[in-house]
Protein backbone atom coordinates (compact mmCIF):
# COMPACT_ATOMS: atom_id res chain seq x y z
CA UNK A 1 0.00 0.00 0.00
CA UNK A 2 2.81 2.43 0.90
CA UNK A 3 4.49 1.87 -2.47
CA UNK A 4 1.20 2.47 -4.33
CA UNK A 5 0.73 5.68 -2.31
CA UNK A 6 4.24 6.78 -3.32
CA UNK A 7 3.54 5.88 -6.97
CA UNK A 8 0.30 7.87 -6.87
CA UNK A 9 2.18 10.92 -5.59
CA UNK A 10 4.69 10.55 -8.42
CA UNK A 11 1.95 10.33 -11.07
CA UNK A 12 0.28 13.44 -9.60
CA UNK A 13 3.60 15.31 -9.85
CA UNK A 14 4.02 14.22 -13.47
CA UNK A 15 0.51 15.42 -14.31
CA UNK A 16 1.28 18.70 -12.53
CA UNK A 17 4.55 19.06 -14.45
CA UNK A 18 2.66 18.54 -17.72
CA UNK A 19 0.22 21.31 -16.72
CA UNK A 20 2.94 23.67 -15.43
CA UNK A 21 3.13 25.56 -18.73
CA UNK A 22 -0.66 25.92 -18.85
CA UNK A 23 -1.50 23.10 -21.26
CA UNK A 24 -0.80 19.43 -21.84
CA UNK A 25 0.86 18.61 -25.16
CA UNK A 26 -0.41 15.52 -27.07
CA UNK A 27 2.90 13.67 -26.46
CA UNK A 28 2.74 14.48 -22.74
CA UNK A 29 -0.88 13.27 -22.62
CA UNK A 30 0.12 9.93 -24.19
CA UNK A 31 3.15 9.62 -21.88
CA UNK A 32 1.04 10.31 -18.77
CA UNK A 33 -1.64 7.82 -19.74
CA UNK A 34 0.96 5.12 -20.40
CA UNK A 35 2.65 5.76 -17.04
CA UNK A 36 -0.71 5.75 -15.21
CA UNK A 37 -1.63 2.49 -16.94
CA UNK A 38 1.70 0.81 -16.08
CA UNK A 39 1.40 1.90 -12.45
CA UNK A 40 -2.21 0.73 -12.26
CA UNK A 41 -3.55 4.22 -11.62
CA UNK A 42 -5.36 5.03 -14.88
CA UNK A 43 -8.76 4.48 -13.26
CA UNK A 44 -7.89 5.78 -9.80
CA UNK A 45 -10.71 8.16 -8.73
CA UNK A 46 -8.21 10.75 -7.43
CA UNK A 47 -5.93 10.64 -10.50
CA UNK A 48 -8.56 10.31 -13.25
CA UNK A 49 -9.88 13.94 -13.30
CA UNK A 50 -6.34 15.30 -13.72
CA UNK A 51 -5.19 12.56 -16.09
CA UNK A 52 -8.11 13.11 -18.47
CA UNK A 53 -7.79 16.91 -18.15
CA UNK A 54 -11.20 17.42 -16.53
CA UNK A 55 -9.48 19.50 -13.86
CA UNK A 56 -6.36 21.60 -14.55
CA UNK A 57 -3.43 21.58 -12.13
CA UNK A 58 -2.03 24.92 -11.00
CA UNK A 59 1.78 25.24 -10.75
CA UNK A 60 1.46 25.88 -7.01
CA UNK A 61 -0.24 22.47 -6.59
CA UNK A 62 2.56 20.77 -8.50
CA UNK A 63 5.21 22.32 -6.24
CA UNK A 64 3.20 21.32 -3.14
CA UNK A 65 3.04 17.73 -4.42
CA UNK A 66 6.81 17.75 -4.99
CA UNK A 67 7.35 18.93 -1.41
CA UNK A 68 4.96 16.25 -0.12
CA UNK A 69 6.65 13.54 -2.22
CA UNK A 70 10.16 14.42 -1.02
CA UNK A 71 9.15 14.74 2.63
CA UNK A 72 11.34 16.08 5.42
CA UNK A 73 14.49 14.09 4.70
CA UNK A 74 14.76 13.26 1.02
CA UNK A 75 17.67 11.14 -0.09
CA UNK A 76 19.81 11.83 -3.13
CA UNK A 77 18.07 8.85 -4.74
CA UNK A 78 14.65 10.48 -4.12
CA UNK A 79 15.79 13.59 -5.99
CA UNK A 80 17.35 11.59 -8.81
CA UNK A 81 14.23 9.44 -9.30
CA UNK A 82 11.99 12.50 -9.35
CA UNK A 83 14.23 14.44 -11.74
CA UNK A 84 14.45 11.40 -14.04
CA UNK A 85 10.67 10.89 -14.06
CA UNK A 86 9.92 14.57 -14.72
CA UNK A 87 12.62 14.74 -17.41
CA UNK A 88 11.04 11.80 -19.23
CA UNK A 89 7.73 13.64 -19.32
CA UNK A 90 9.16 17.04 -20.22
CA UNK A 91 11.29 15.73 -23.07
CA UNK A 92 8.48 13.52 -24.43
CA UNK A 93 7.18 16.38 -26.59
CA UNK A 94 10.62 17.58 -27.71
CA UNK A 95 9.89 21.06 -26.37
CA UNK A 96 10.93 22.30 -22.93
CA UNK A 97 8.82 25.23 -21.74
CA UNK A 98 10.37 27.83 -19.43
CA UNK A 99 8.18 26.71 -16.51
CA UNK A 100 9.21 23.08 -17.02
CA UNK A 101 12.89 24.02 -17.12
CA UNK A 102 12.43 26.10 -13.95
CA UNK A 103 10.92 23.08 -12.13
CA UNK A 104 13.86 20.88 -13.14
CA UNK A 105 16.37 23.57 -12.14
CA UNK A 106 14.78 23.97 -8.73
CA UNK A 107 14.91 20.23 -8.15
CA UNK A 108 18.57 20.16 -9.22
CA UNK A 109 19.37 23.00 -6.78
CA UNK A 110 17.52 21.26 -3.94
CA UNK A 111 19.38 18.07 -4.76
CA UNK A 112 22.76 19.84 -4.67
CA UNK A 113 22.02 21.63 -1.40
CA UNK A 114 20.85 18.34 0.10
CA UNK A 115 24.07 16.68 -1.03
CA UNK A 116 26.13 19.53 0.46
CA UNK A 117 24.23 19.27 3.76
CA UNK A 118 24.82 15.53 3.79
CA UNK A 119 28.56 15.89 3.24
CA UNK A 120 28.72 18.62 5.92
CA UNK A 121 26.85 16.30 8.26
CA UNK A 122 29.23 13.42 7.46
CA UNK A 123 32.29 15.64 8.04
CA UNK A 124 30.87 16.79 11.36
CA UNK A 125 30.24 13.20 12.45
CA UNK A 126 33.83 12.25 11.57
CA UNK A 127 35.16 15.16 13.63
CA UNK A 128 32.97 14.17 16.59
CA UNK A 129 34.24 10.57 16.35
CA UNK A 130 37.87 11.80 16.37
CA UNK A 131 37.23 13.96 19.45
CA UNK A 132 35.50 11.08 21.20
CA UNK A 133 38.38 8.69 20.42
CA UNK A 134 40.89 11.22 21.77
CA UNK A 135 38.84 11.64 24.91
CA UNK A 136 38.63 7.83 25.36
CA UNK A 137 42.41 7.59 24.83
CA UNK A 138 43.05 10.30 27.44
CA UNK A 139 40.75 8.54 29.92
CA UNK A 140 42.70 5.29 29.61
Task: Describe the structure concisely.
The protein has six helices and no strands. It has helices at residues 2-19, 26-38, 48-51, 59-70, 76-90, 98-139.
Which characteristics define this entry?
about 140 residues; mainly alpha; about 0% strand
Describe what you observe in this structure.
With 140 residues, the chain is mainly α. It is built from six helices and no strands. Helix 1 (2-19) runs antiparallel to helix 4 and helix 5 (76-90) packs antiparallel against helix 6. The model has no long low-confidence stretch (mean pLDDT 80). 74% of the residues lie in helices and 0% in strands.
Itemize the secondary structure elements and their pairings.
Blueprint (H helix, E strand, L loop, with lengths): L1 H18 L6 H13 L9 H4 L7 H12 L5 H15 L7 H42 L1
Helix pairs in contact: 1-2, 1-4, 1-5, 5-6
Number of DSSP E strands: 0
Which structural class is indicated by helix and strand composition? mainly alpha
User: Helical region count?
Assistant: 6
What order do the SSEs take from the amino end to the carboxyl end, as H and E?
HHHHHH
**How much strand?**
under 5%
Amino acid sequence: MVNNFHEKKLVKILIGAAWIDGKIQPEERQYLREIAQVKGLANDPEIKPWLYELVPVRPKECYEWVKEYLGDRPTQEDYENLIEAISGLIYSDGDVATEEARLLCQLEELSKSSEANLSTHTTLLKQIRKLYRRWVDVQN
